[in-house]
Write a structure and sequence with these properties.
Keywords: Heme, Iron, Membrane, Metal-binding, Transmembrane, Transmembrane helix. With 211 residues, this protein is an all-alpha fold. It is built from 7 helices and no strands. The relative contact order is 0.12.
Length: 211
């Protein structure tokens, strides 16, 4: 769970940085998209490195989901009889439901995102357009519902990140009375930065700041 989650966090941070290049203009964004596909050339064929990274990411996502299901089953098996007193804080219950149901929505979002901006099946411009044009067309004001879907999914990713990073700190034994506040702030900071970075792109396009 921790290893696969770390891989995904690293990917999200790098992916966010790349997406923000859209604010530098069409040429910079298209150049970045081209560079992703030509990494390693001429030592390796076109798109080899990117494909390897995508495979690693898919494996990490599958392992993360498998780990979550396995841990839930182990916890249930270890305590087949429910507690007589359900003493659970509001924060704990909220976190559990966010991770569980938010994870399902995030999985649906990942599938849509791949069909949209990787395989271009549901993108208005299709495979014949430039990466910049596809991105702008995707979040056109007339397609506000797509923007809304992306923003909601990214907000759930942020909540997932916040709780996941904090849980990882606990699992690794880094939490202590002295480090508690700092680690919570770090988890919230990383989650907030990634969320803000990702939502800024579709919102800027929908509201005409990027066109």
């Amino acid at each position: 769970m921790a290893v696969s989650g770390s891989i995904m966090v690293g990917f999200l941070v790098l992916h966010m940085i790349g997406n923000l290049k859209i604010f530098l203009g069409e040429d910079d964004f298209n150049h970045y998209a081209h560079w992703l596909r030509t990494m390693g050339e001429p030592a390796v064929p076109y798109r080899t490195v990117l494909t390897i990274l995508e495979v690693v990411l898919v494996v990490a996502v599958v392992l993360h989901m498998w780990s979550a299901i396995s841990l839930a089953r182990r916890a249930s098996a270890a305590r087949p009889v429910k507690y007589q007193s359900k003493k659970k804080s509001h924060a704990q219950g909220y976190a559990v439901h966010t991770m569980r149901y938010g994870g399902v929505i995030i999985a649906v979002y990942i599938v849509w995102h791949l069909l949209d901006l990787t395989f271009f099946v549901v993108n208005p411009k299709g495979s014949g357009a430039t990466p910049y044009d596809r991105m702008v067309a995707d979040f056109d004001p007339s397609r506000w519902f797509i923007t809304l879907f992306y923003v909601v999914a990214i907000l759930l990713v942020g909540l997932h990140l916040n709780h996941g990073i904090w849980s990882a700190f606990q699992t690794l034994g880094l939490r202590s009375p002295r480090s508690n506040k700092a680690l919570r702030a770090l988890a919230a900071g990383v989650a907030g930065l990634v969320t803000l970075g990702f939502v800024s792109v579709p919102l800027s396009i929908t509201f005409g700041l990027v066109s």
